[in-house]
Amino acid sequence: DLARFYKQTQIYTEAVNHYNAALIQNEDHNSQLTATVKNELAEIYIALNNYTKAADLLNSSLSHSEKHTYLNLKSKSYELLGTCAEKQNQPKKALDFQQQSLLIYRDLKDLSGEATVLENIGSIYEDLGDYDKAYTYFEQAYAFFKEVDDEAQINAFNNLADIYRKTGRYKEAITKTKEVLELALAYDNPHQIASAYKDLAKAYALAEDYKHAHFYALAYQDLVEKQFYAQNFNQLNALQTVYDTKEKQARIELLEQEQETSQVKFIAMLLLLFILISSGIILFSFQKRKRRARL
Helices then strands (H, E): number in the chain? Predict the structure, then answer.
């Protein structure tokens, strides 16, 4: 739980340390936990752009998942391997991994996982410049996320708007991206709001409306700066919380140690008192016998 907390707050060094500690403690015991932790670690290394390390962890996780048929973990590993391959400009390999993941998610009837992979496949086709195929996959992902009111619909909708911009339909792109912005504001998602500002600036610039392009570019820059300081503040708060927790735990342990020491001292004092009383009784008995002997 603490490792996930560090991961969510993007304190990756601490997250990696805690995950690695979990792997060491779990060595040769629980393959499912090992596979889960390695997938979690891989996501961190992907965020840090270390795709080689991430792929190594994912392949290792797969060896556990395939051996014990952990299908959910297996599908996640293939999905993340596809992401690694895409980031390393290996689109064919990326598609193969995503398709393997998609098959498992469909067998499991995991609609959320399926929608995520459909969006990933759309992203690969977008990289390849096959915008019609990309749009089809993005549209399927968006339809699912919208139906279940999942916040992931913002990103999927934004991907659809990007296709309009990249195919030269700037008016439609601006309209769609403004709808994305409204959705992001409704969910209060700063990252997606910033992304919408950035895309609007691009679309207006391509449409040669430089006044609006400049307006949204400034809005994007301002929000990114605020996000930077907010993230640092959140990380400091997270670290302070962890420090306070550890300090509190240390105090509890110290009090317990002091209590144990006090108990030992009390027992020792009782033992000493018992010895003194016993010695006094023995001495008294001895002197009493001595007096009787004189009589």
Answer: 12, 0
pTM: 0.76
pLDDT digits (tens, 9 = 90+) for 133-178: 999 999 999 999 999 999 999 999 999 999 999 999 999 999 999 9
- In the chain the first and final C-alpha atoms are separated, in Å, by 82
Contact predicate 217/201, CB 8 Å: yes
Residue 129 near residue 138, CB atoms below 8 Å: no
List Cβ neighbours of 86 (8 Å cut-off, separation of 6 or more).
94, 120, 123, 124, 127
For residues 137 and 123, what is the distance between their CA atoms, to the nearest angstrom? 9
| Burial label, 288 (beta-carbon count in 10 A; 0-12, 13-18, 19+) | exposed
DSSP-derived 3-state class of residue 60:
helix
For 164, the token pair is 């309009």
Of 8, 11, 33, whose CA–CA distance to 21 is shortest?
33
Q: What are the pLDDT digits (tens) for 237-276?
A: 766 666 666 656 666 665 666 566 666 666 767 777 777 7
Please say whether the beta carbons of 135 and 160 come within 8 A: yes
CA 209 to chain centre: 40
CB-side exposure of 31: number of CA atoms within 13 Å?
A: 14
